[in-house]
Amino acid sequence: MSVSQAQTGPEAVASRASLQPRPGWLGGLDRLTGPKATKAELWLQLGPAIAAAIIAPLYARSLPVEWTPLQLGLIAFLGLDMVGGVLTNATATAKRWYHRPGQGWRQHFAFVCLHLVHILLVALVLRSGDWGFFGGVSAYLLMASLVIVRSHRYLQRPIALGLYGLALLGDRYWLTPTPGLEWLLPFLFLKLLVSHLVPEETDRPTASQSTPPKI
């Protein structure tokens, strides 16, 4: 079968149809989790996320810090989004949806850029306007994301894991932890660099790609 036939045949039409979100509010859920997510996937995503939204502010309140309702609300939202995001983006259904035809490196990079708002809110609301935190974390996140999405597909997983490891070291030895949110950056980088940007299936290298460069 030719390439054009493969793209326009019945199997391709059925495949594209299976990736169409449902109408109404269910379509909004499909755009987050991927169309036709299984019940097991949905429970795996929602249960821990809701638990994190409850536990995160409770943990923060156990610390000797005077919290405002806004701060506790932000902590609850971040717990929900980070834990839910790590698990959602790791499911097979979400991988198929976010890495469907037409979703290239620009779309993935735009998704990462949306999360700069999370870093900004933490810098303003929980770190008293810490612009060094915002600039440093944002710069590394954008740099690492660009390296991953512009790499050969078959190399994206090890590159993502390596850059995630560097993020963990930076969070541990360079940054001052955010009280109540010591867990935030490990989850943020795990969600974006590993869970979201890395496709479910990676291409095998071609002969030219797998040949070591001459020194």
Total domain count: 1
Computed structural class? mainly alpha
* Number of beta-strand segments: 0
Biggest sheet descriptor: none
Amount of beta strand? under 5%
- Structural shape: globular
Mean pLDDT: 86
Radius of gyration: 20 Å
Roughly what percent helix?
A: over 70%
Distance between the termini: 42 Å
Q: Which residues form runs of ≥5 with pLDDT under 50? A: 1-15
Run of helices and strands: HHHHHHHHHHHH
Count the helices. How many? 12
Structure notes:
The protein is mostly helical. The chain has one domain (37-200). It is built from 12 helices and no strands. It has helices at 3-8, 10-18, 25-33, 39-61, 69-90, 92-98, 105-114, 116-126, 131-149, 156-173, 184-196, 207-210. The model is unreliable at 1-15 (pLDDT under 50). Keywords: Membrane, Transmembrane, Transmembrane helix. The chain crosses the membrane at residues 42-60, 72-92, 104-125, 131-149.
